[in-house]
Amino acid sequence: MINEGNDRRGFSGYGHSTAHPSLALIKYWGKADSVENLPATPSLAVTLDGLKTETSVWISLNTGSGNTADAVFIEGVLQEKKRFEPFFREFRRLLEKKKPDFSDFTIKAESSSNFPASAGLASSSSGFAALACACSGAAGVELSRDVLSALARIGSASAARSLYGGFTSLAEGKRHAKQLFNENWWPEFRIIILELEKKPKEISSRKAMEQTRITSPYYNSWVKDSVVLMNEAETALGNRNLEILGPIIRKSYLRMFATMFAADPPVIYWKPISLGVIRLCEEMRAEGISVWETMDAGPQVKLFCTENETGKILSRLEAVFPDIRARVCTPGSAPV
Length: 336
Ligand code: PMV
Hints:
Alpha-Beta Plaits, alpha+beta, 39% helix, Ribosomal Protein S5, domain 2, 10 helices, four-stranded antiparallel beta sheet
């Protein structure tokens, strides 16, 4: 445990939260402002039941001695401070307004997930969402969901969406996400998460986005086009129509990657097995199965379908790729 020795002396609060990752149907890729971490494109996502990140936070008032450096441990490994500094700065700024007497303190966080981190499975979305909730719990302050969403966004823009259950959106240039439909909107909707590789990605999404923004000749078109895809997708989701939504989901991730492939140097997260799964989805669609794939900053592939086709899809996957792990998720709830 971490609240021992010096840390116990000024101990003043503990918070805990469990959050689910946010998987985008319409992708955010590119920043309108890299300091504020504001997205350049709108995104539409589903919060995933079944995958989760649990985070504990201890806040201790500084007493003039002992270690006062904030520390975050993921799966027991101390993380680079820099990654969390802007988030903790914003958290302190929010607290200054709510609890002016509570200013000199150290934050320690421990986090673990039931899926691999930094491998393109949206661990930063559930990670920063859980951290935002656990921090406010540890400080004993009530922050609205929108404020928590904006705080989580500082760490990772997709995390802004993880603050809400069901289907969510984060508009371009906006500070917090919003819920479009709750987790009961489309009871038959299923998401199959395929774990093709456990290794952490070679290039962070933050770095890859900037590389794409600065060097890809297609970047401006991608940003413009994503607004069109977003509007179409919102309507299809409102009608719970996978036949219309599926092809839009597909355009969004493929156009995002086309923009990345054209960067200099190119950003290539795909692995041969990723393409293998994409081709298998094409085959299944040709046979009349409504299955639509997407990918993020990593080699994993995620599939969207409805409950009645899940069994067929899983057996096809098992027959062609017996070694890959598949998890079937439903739309999940907000953090607790
Ligand atoms: O929020 P970040 O920095 O982890 O970036 C997420 C980027 C994508 O997963 C590729 C797309 C998205 O909207 O989640």
